[in-house]
Amino acid sequence: MSGRVTRHRTDGNEEGPHRHARGADVLRTTVPVTMRGRTVPVSCLRREGEAPPVLILPGLGMPAMEALGIAPERVLPGRSLLVPDIPGTGRTPGTRDLTVEDLATLAAALVGHLDAGPAVVVGHSMGGLAGLFLCRDRPGLVAGFVNVEGNLGPGDCFVSRRVVVEPVAAVAASLGRSRAAGMARYARTLAAVRDVGTLRSVSRSLVEHSTSSPLLTWFTRLEVPSLFITGASGRELPYLGTLRAAGIPVVSLGRSGHFPMYSRPAAYYRAVEEFVEGVDRGTAAG
Protein backbone atom coordinates (compact mmCIF):
# COMPACT_ATOMS: atom_id res chain seq x y z
CA MET A 1 0.00 0.00 0.00
CA SER A 2 1.17 3.52 -0.70
CA GLY A 3 0.67 6.55 1.50
CA ARG A 4 2.25 8.23 4.50
CA VAL A 5 1.10 7.40 8.03
CA THR A 6 1.47 9.87 10.88
CA ARG A 7 0.75 9.75 14.59
CA HIS A 8 0.35 13.46 15.23
CA ARG A 9 -2.97 15.23 15.69
CA THR A 10 -6.07 13.35 14.55
CA ASP A 11 -8.40 16.27 15.19
CA GLY A 12 -8.33 19.76 16.59
CA ASN A 13 -8.18 18.76 20.25
CA GLU A 14 -6.13 15.59 20.80
CA GLU A 15 -2.56 14.59 20.21
CA GLY A 16 -1.70 11.13 18.98
CA PRO A 17 -3.78 8.31 17.55
CA HIS A 18 -7.26 7.43 18.74
CA ARG A 19 -6.98 4.15 20.64
CA HIS A 20 -9.66 1.54 20.02
CA ALA A 21 -10.65 -0.68 22.93
CA ARG A 22 -9.42 -3.81 21.13
CA GLY A 23 -6.01 -2.26 20.56
CA ALA A 24 -6.26 -0.92 17.00
CA ASP A 25 -5.22 2.70 16.49
CA VAL A 26 -7.03 5.17 14.30
CA LEU A 27 -4.20 6.92 12.49
CA ARG A 28 -3.77 9.69 9.97
CA THR A 29 -2.54 8.53 6.58
CA THR A 30 -2.00 10.45 3.35
CA VAL A 31 -2.97 8.75 0.09
CA PRO A 32 -1.88 10.32 -3.22
CA VAL A 33 -4.86 10.20 -5.59
CA THR A 34 -4.68 11.18 -9.26
CA MET A 35 -7.82 12.75 -10.70
CA ARG A 36 -7.79 13.91 -14.32
CA GLY A 37 -4.00 14.13 -14.35
CA ARG A 38 -3.69 15.98 -11.04
CA THR A 39 -2.35 14.22 -7.96
CA VAL A 40 -3.91 15.30 -4.68
CA PRO A 41 -2.55 14.20 -1.26
CA VAL A 42 -5.75 12.99 0.40
CA SER A 43 -5.61 12.96 4.19
CA CYS A 44 -7.57 10.09 5.76
CA LEU A 45 -8.38 8.50 9.07
CA ARG A 46 -7.34 4.84 8.92
CA ARG A 47 -7.78 1.83 11.19
CA GLU A 48 -6.66 -1.73 10.57
CA GLY A 49 -9.24 -4.33 11.46
CA GLU A 50 -11.56 -7.07 10.32
CA ALA A 51 -12.80 -7.53 6.77
CA PRO A 52 -14.76 -6.44 4.91
CA PRO A 53 -13.16 -2.99 5.10
CA VAL A 54 -15.46 0.03 5.34
CA LEU A 55 -14.94 3.23 3.36
CA ILE A 56 -16.96 6.20 4.59
CA LEU A 57 -17.51 9.02 2.07
CA PRO A 58 -18.43 12.37 3.70
CA GLY A 59 -21.14 14.81 2.74
CA LEU A 60 -20.64 18.28 1.30
CA GLY A 61 -18.04 20.31 3.19
CA MET A 62 -17.57 17.67 5.90
CA PRO A 63 -14.03 16.55 6.82
CA ALA A 64 -13.48 13.00 8.05
CA MET A 65 -14.02 13.71 11.75
CA GLU A 66 -17.35 15.41 11.07
CA ALA A 67 -18.41 12.62 8.72
CA LEU A 68 -18.04 10.19 11.63
CA GLY A 69 -19.93 12.41 14.04
CA ILE A 70 -18.51 10.66 17.11
CA ALA A 71 -15.07 9.61 18.35
CA PRO A 72 -13.44 7.27 15.79
CA GLU A 73 -12.91 4.46 18.29
CA ARG A 74 -16.69 4.19 18.71
CA VAL A 75 -17.33 3.77 14.98
CA LEU A 76 -17.80 0.14 13.87
CA PRO A 77 -15.40 -1.26 16.49
CA GLY A 78 -12.96 -3.81 15.15
CA ARG A 79 -13.65 -3.09 11.47
CA SER A 80 -11.05 -1.98 8.99
CA LEU A 81 -11.96 1.65 8.35
CA LEU A 82 -10.93 4.49 6.02
CA VAL A 83 -12.46 7.98 6.02
CA PRO A 84 -11.05 10.76 3.80
CA ASP A 85 -10.98 14.50 4.09
CA ILE A 86 -12.57 15.26 0.71
CA PRO A 87 -10.52 17.80 -1.32
CA GLY A 88 -11.03 21.27 0.07
CA THR A 89 -11.88 20.03 3.60
CA GLY A 90 -9.78 19.16 6.63
CA ARG A 91 -6.15 18.53 5.71
CA THR A 92 -6.71 17.77 2.04
CA PRO A 93 -6.01 20.67 -0.33
CA GLY A 94 -8.68 21.78 -2.76
CA THR A 95 -8.61 21.17 -6.48
CA ARG A 96 -10.23 23.30 -9.13
CA ASP A 97 -13.29 22.04 -10.97
CA LEU A 98 -13.94 19.16 -8.55
CA THR A 99 -16.82 16.94 -9.72
CA VAL A 100 -18.77 13.96 -8.46
CA GLU A 101 -16.90 11.85 -11.03
CA ASP A 102 -13.64 12.94 -9.39
CA LEU A 103 -14.96 11.82 -6.02
CA ALA A 104 -15.79 8.40 -7.48
CA THR A 105 -12.23 8.21 -8.81
CA LEU A 106 -10.97 9.13 -5.35
CA ALA A 107 -13.15 6.44 -3.77
CA ALA A 108 -11.82 3.79 -6.15
CA ALA A 109 -8.24 4.77 -5.30
CA LEU A 110 -8.99 4.53 -1.58
CA VAL A 111 -10.49 1.06 -1.93
CA GLY A 112 -7.27 0.08 -3.69
CA HIS A 113 -5.28 1.59 -0.84
CA LEU A 114 -7.13 -0.61 1.64
CA ASP A 115 -5.67 -3.60 -0.22
CA ALA A 116 -8.18 -5.95 1.38
CA GLY A 117 -10.61 -6.80 -1.39
CA PRO A 118 -13.95 -5.12 -2.07
CA ALA A 119 -15.10 -2.61 0.54
CA VAL A 120 -18.44 -1.73 2.03
CA VAL A 121 -18.97 1.88 0.98
CA VAL A 122 -20.98 4.15 3.28
CA GLY A 123 -21.81 7.44 1.58
CA HIS A 124 -23.67 10.31 3.24
CA SER A 125 -25.44 12.93 1.10
CA MET A 126 -22.81 14.00 -1.47
CA GLY A 127 -20.80 10.91 -0.47
CA GLY A 128 -23.84 8.80 -1.31
CA LEU A 129 -23.83 10.15 -4.85
CA ALA A 130 -20.10 9.54 -5.19
CA GLY A 131 -20.64 6.02 -3.89
CA LEU A 132 -23.41 5.49 -6.42
CA PHE A 133 -21.07 6.43 -9.27
CA LEU A 134 -18.44 4.05 -7.87
CA CYS A 135 -20.94 1.18 -7.63
CA ARG A 136 -22.22 1.81 -11.14
CA ASP A 137 -18.81 2.10 -12.79
CA ARG A 138 -16.62 -0.19 -10.63
CA PRO A 139 -18.93 -2.73 -8.95
CA GLY A 140 -16.06 -5.16 -8.44
CA LEU A 141 -14.59 -2.78 -5.86
CA VAL A 142 -17.74 -2.69 -3.74
CA ALA A 143 -18.92 -5.47 -1.43
CA GLY A 144 -21.95 -3.47 -0.32
CA PHE A 145 -23.30 0.08 -0.44
CA VAL A 146 -24.98 2.08 2.32
CA ASN A 147 -26.60 5.18 0.85
CA VAL A 148 -27.34 7.69 3.64
CA GLU A 149 -29.78 10.15 2.05
CA GLY A 150 -27.51 10.49 -0.97
CA ASN A 151 -28.71 12.58 -3.89
CA LEU A 152 -31.26 10.72 -6.01
CA GLY A 153 -33.37 13.54 -7.43
CA PRO A 154 -33.72 17.30 -7.98
CA GLY A 155 -35.08 17.86 -4.48
CA ASP A 156 -31.92 16.51 -2.84
CA CYS A 157 -29.81 19.65 -3.32
CA PHE A 158 -31.09 21.78 -0.48
CA VAL A 159 -27.58 23.00 0.45
CA SER A 160 -25.53 22.57 -2.72
CA ARG A 161 -28.05 24.49 -4.81
CA ARG A 162 -27.65 27.48 -2.49
CA VAL A 163 -23.86 27.20 -2.30
CA VAL A 164 -23.66 27.59 -6.08
CA VAL A 165 -25.33 31.03 -6.03
CA GLU A 166 -24.97 32.44 -2.49
CA PRO A 167 -22.02 33.33 -0.26
CA VAL A 168 -21.14 30.26 1.80
CA ALA A 169 -21.09 32.32 4.99
CA ALA A 170 -24.68 33.40 4.35
CA VAL A 171 -25.79 29.83 3.66
CA ALA A 172 -24.13 28.62 6.87
CA ALA A 173 -25.70 31.42 8.90
CA SER A 174 -29.13 30.55 7.54
CA LEU A 175 -28.71 26.84 8.26
CA GLY A 176 -27.50 27.67 11.75
CA ARG A 177 -30.93 29.11 12.57
CA SER A 178 -32.67 25.87 11.59
CA ARG A 179 -34.18 23.65 14.27
CA ALA A 180 -33.70 20.52 12.18
CA ALA A 181 -31.74 17.79 13.95
CA GLY A 182 -27.99 18.19 13.47
CA MET A 183 -28.29 21.25 11.25
CA ALA A 184 -26.67 23.75 13.62
CA ARG A 185 -23.58 21.57 13.91
CA TYR A 186 -23.42 21.14 10.16
CA ALA A 187 -23.75 24.89 9.71
CA ARG A 188 -20.63 25.41 11.82
CA THR A 189 -18.79 22.83 9.72
CA LEU A 190 -19.84 24.50 6.49
CA ALA A 191 -18.79 27.92 7.77
CA ALA A 192 -15.32 26.54 8.54
CA VAL A 193 -14.64 25.36 4.96
CA ARG A 194 -11.59 27.26 3.75
CA ASP A 195 -11.60 26.36 0.06
CA VAL A 196 -14.88 27.87 -1.09
CA GLY A 197 -13.92 27.45 -4.76
CA THR A 198 -13.70 23.68 -4.46
CA LEU A 199 -16.91 23.57 -2.42
CA ARG A 200 -18.77 25.58 -5.04
CA SER A 201 -17.39 23.49 -7.90
CA VAL A 202 -18.50 20.17 -6.46
CA SER A 203 -21.84 21.72 -5.47
CA ARG A 204 -22.40 22.65 -9.10
CA SER A 205 -21.70 19.06 -10.13
CA LEU A 206 -24.11 17.78 -7.48
CA VAL A 207 -26.89 20.02 -8.74
CA GLU A 208 -26.28 19.10 -12.38
CA HIS A 209 -26.41 15.35 -11.74
CA SER A 210 -29.35 15.55 -9.35
CA THR A 211 -31.30 17.52 -11.93
CA SER A 212 -30.42 15.70 -15.15
CA SER A 213 -29.00 12.22 -14.42
CA PRO A 214 -31.21 9.14 -13.87
CA LEU A 215 -29.80 8.57 -10.39
CA LEU A 216 -32.76 6.64 -9.03
CA THR A 217 -32.66 4.24 -11.97
CA TRP A 218 -28.95 3.72 -11.50
CA PHE A 219 -29.41 3.01 -7.80
CA THR A 220 -32.22 0.49 -8.24
CA ARG A 221 -30.20 -1.40 -10.87
CA LEU A 222 -26.94 -1.73 -8.96
CA GLU A 223 -25.22 -5.10 -8.92
CA VAL A 224 -24.14 -4.87 -5.28
CA PRO A 225 -26.09 -5.33 -2.02
CA SER A 226 -27.48 -1.95 -0.96
CA LEU A 227 -29.18 -0.22 1.96
CA PHE A 228 -30.81 3.22 2.11
CA ILE A 229 -30.81 5.08 5.45
CA THR A 230 -33.04 8.10 5.97
CA GLY A 231 -33.88 10.36 8.90
CA ALA A 232 -37.24 11.70 9.96
CA SER A 233 -36.88 14.47 7.38
CA GLY A 234 -36.63 11.81 4.69
CA ARG A 235 -39.84 9.93 5.43
CA GLU A 236 -41.65 11.82 2.72
CA LEU A 237 -38.97 11.35 0.07
CA PRO A 238 -40.92 10.56 -3.09
CA TYR A 239 -38.78 7.62 -4.13
CA LEU A 240 -38.82 5.47 -0.97
CA GLY A 241 -41.59 3.30 -2.41
CA THR A 242 -39.57 2.80 -5.58
CA LEU A 243 -36.55 1.70 -3.55
CA ARG A 244 -38.58 -0.81 -1.56
CA ALA A 245 -40.23 -2.15 -4.72
CA ALA A 246 -36.74 -2.70 -6.17
CA GLY A 247 -35.80 -4.80 -3.13
CA ILE A 248 -33.56 -2.18 -1.49
CA PRO A 249 -34.08 -2.14 2.28
CA VAL A 250 -34.90 1.27 3.75
CA VAL A 251 -34.02 2.07 7.37
CA SER A 252 -35.82 5.13 8.73
CA LEU A 253 -34.22 6.62 11.84
CA GLY A 254 -36.85 8.81 13.45
CA ARG A 255 -35.78 12.19 14.84
CA SER A 256 -32.37 12.01 13.17
CA GLY A 257 -32.86 14.43 10.28
CA HIS A 258 -30.27 14.51 7.51
CA PHE A 259 -27.35 13.90 9.90
CA PRO A 260 -27.92 10.65 11.81
CA MET A 261 -24.23 10.47 12.75
CA TYR A 262 -24.85 13.62 14.80
CA SER A 263 -28.32 13.12 16.20
CA ARG A 264 -28.66 9.33 16.59
CA PRO A 265 -25.19 7.83 16.22
CA ALA A 266 -25.87 4.63 18.16
CA ALA A 267 -28.88 3.70 16.01
CA TYR A 268 -27.14 4.83 12.85
CA TYR A 269 -24.00 2.79 13.34
CA ARG A 270 -26.01 -0.19 14.54
CA ALA A 271 -27.85 -0.19 11.20
CA VAL A 272 -24.56 0.12 9.31
CA GLU A 273 -22.92 -2.65 11.33
CA GLU A 274 -25.86 -5.01 10.79
CA PHE A 275 -25.60 -4.42 7.06
CA VAL A 276 -21.82 -4.99 7.08
CA GLU A 277 -22.34 -8.23 9.01
CA GLY A 278 -24.89 -9.30 6.41
CA VAL A 279 -22.40 -8.58 3.62
CA ASP A 280 -19.81 -10.62 5.48
CA ARG A 281 -22.24 -13.56 5.79
CA GLY A 282 -23.53 -13.18 2.26
CA THR A 283 -27.06 -12.46 3.46
CA ALA A 284 -27.32 -8.70 2.81
CA ALA A 285 -30.36 -7.76 0.73
CA GLY A 286 -30.50 -5.23 -2.07
Provide a concise account of the structure shown.
This protein has one domain (44-281): Alpha/Beta hydrolase fold, catalytic domain (Rossmann fold), CATH 3.40.50.
Describe the structure.
The structure is a single chain. This protein is of the alpha/beta class and 286 residues long. It has a single domain (44-281), classed as Rossmann fold (3-Layer(aba) Sandwich). Helix content is 37%, strand content 22%. It is built from eleven helices and ten strands. It has helices at residues 64-68, 100-114, 126-137, 160-165, 168-176, 183-191, 196-212, 215-220, 240-245, 260-263, 265-281; strands at residues 4-6, 18-19, 25-35, 38-47, 50-57, 79-84, 119-124, 142-148, 226-231, 250-253. Strands 1, 2, 3, 4, 5, 6, 7, 8, 9 and 10 form a ten-stranded mixed β-sheet that branches. Strand 7 (119-124), helix 3 (126-137) and strand 8 (142-148) form a beta-alpha-beta unit. Helix 2 crosses helix 3 (126-137) and helix 5 runs antiparallel to helix 6 (183-191). The protein is globular. The model is unreliable at 4-23 (pLDDT under 50).
Instruction: Report the principal-axis shape.
Output: globular
The biggest beta sheet is recorded as: 10 strands, mixed
Radius of gyration: 17 Å
CATH architecture assignment name? 3-Layer(aba) Sandwich
The figure for the number of domains is 1
Q: Quote the CATH topology.
A: Rossmann fold
Q: H/E element string?
A: EEEEEHEHEHEHHHHHEHEHH
Q: SS-based structural class?
A: alpha/beta
For the record, what CATH class applies? Alpha Beta
How would you name the CATH homologous superfamily? Alpha/Beta hydrolase fold, catalytic domain
Low confidence ranges:
4-23
Determine the N-to-C terminus distance: 31 Å
Helix content: 25-40%
